[in-house]
Amino acid sequence: MAKEGGFCGYRNIQMMISFIQAAQSRGYEFFPGRVPSILDLQELIECAWDRGINTAGKVETGGIKGTRKYIGTPEAQTLLISLNIGCEASAFNDIKNPPVFKQVYREVERYFASHTVASAEKVCRTSAPPIYFQHQGHSLTIVGLEMRKSGNRNLLVFDPSFKPSPGIQRLIGSEFRAVAPEKLLKAYRRGDKYLGKHSSFEILRYGGLKMNAERFG
Predict the structure, then answer these.
(1) 92 in Cβ contact with 204 (< 8 Å)
(2) Helix, strand or coil for residue 147?
């Protein structure tokens, strides 16, 4: 493949699909067996374009099959719409009310709060699906929101640019209590310093209202 970019967009789509499979949520029947490969995802997106869904994406990219071209929120949305899987997309670029990332915090907080049962526990678990999150040049998967005693917030994310540490890998699938959770969470936090470098963001939520296929087209 030509050296035209990275695979973060595909990795975040794969993370969304892995949730759909594990939870047997709407659309899981389209993904039997293993999580689709990058080539599989390229094929699904290309087929959706051929059906007239978000066709501007194909014009803009010139096609993605067999390449390393960047993809983003429009392509993730295109794939879900093509399989009749409900999704809801939102853009944050209101520079009249800076900083823009504060708008993202508020929206993410509302989203997870709407899926959380009132609890006095320090950590609130939720059944909410992860969120596809895009900023200029990179995408991540939002899996939670941290609210500090100071009032500051951090998005908790899976970033496909990084591999889990050996310590985290050993804990996967097990229940545990961390002696120093700060060390474990550090790699997954994205706060003001990181988000403040960007002036626009997009999110895609699985399972929301079906959106117009040309929203990002």
Answers:
(1) no
(2) strand
Asked whether the beta carbons of 87 and 208 are under 8 A apart, the reply is yes
* Other C-beta atoms lying within 10 Å of the C-beta of residue 133: 23
How many other C-beta atoms can be found within 10 angstroms of the C-beta atom of residue 153?
Answer: 20
User: Is the CB of residue 83 less than 8 Å from the CB of residue 25?
Assistant: no
Q: What is the pTM of this model?
A: 0.87
Task: Give just the sign of the alpha carbon dihedral 64, 78, 100, 196.
Answer: negative
Average pLDDT on 93-119 reads: 85
Distance CA 81, CA 19 (A): 17
First CA to last CA distance, the chain: 26
d(C-alpha 30, C-alpha 17), whole Å = 10
Q: How confident is the model at residue 168 (pLDDT cuts 50, 70, 90)?
A: confident
Q: Which of the two residues, 10 and 180, has the higher pLDDT score?
A: 10
C-alpha 196/C-alpha 136 separation (Å) is 12
CA distance 70 to 103: 25
